[in-house]
Amino acid sequence: MKLILVLLMVMSMWRFVPVHLANEYLQCTEYSYVTVKNGESLWVIAEKYVSNGKDIRELIAAIHQLNELDSNGNLVPGQILKIPVLASL
């Protein structure tokens, strides 16, 4: 019973972990810079930079946060985006 109670407490506390600690892309120190082309979306851009085996949604969230995009993630042709790049081993 105590084990179940402890597990429930740990699971409920997980939601308080800051997103930036769970997203590796937000801890990067290496970046690429991309100029947005007409018709490009965050998804299209992120597909070019996502690391193998990583969830593209984490990269999109990091790009969104690093570039302080509006809630819809609207892009404008000519806009320059900072793209986090995970260091390759």
From TrEMBL:
- Say which domain of life the source belongs to: Bacteria
Alphabetical list of SUPFAM superfamilies matching this protein: LysM domain
Q: Where is the LysM domain?
A: 32-83
Pfam family of the protein (one) = LysM
- What are the coiled-coil residue ranges? none
Q: What is this protein called?
A: LysM domain-containing protein
| Organism expressing this protein natively | Propionispira arboris
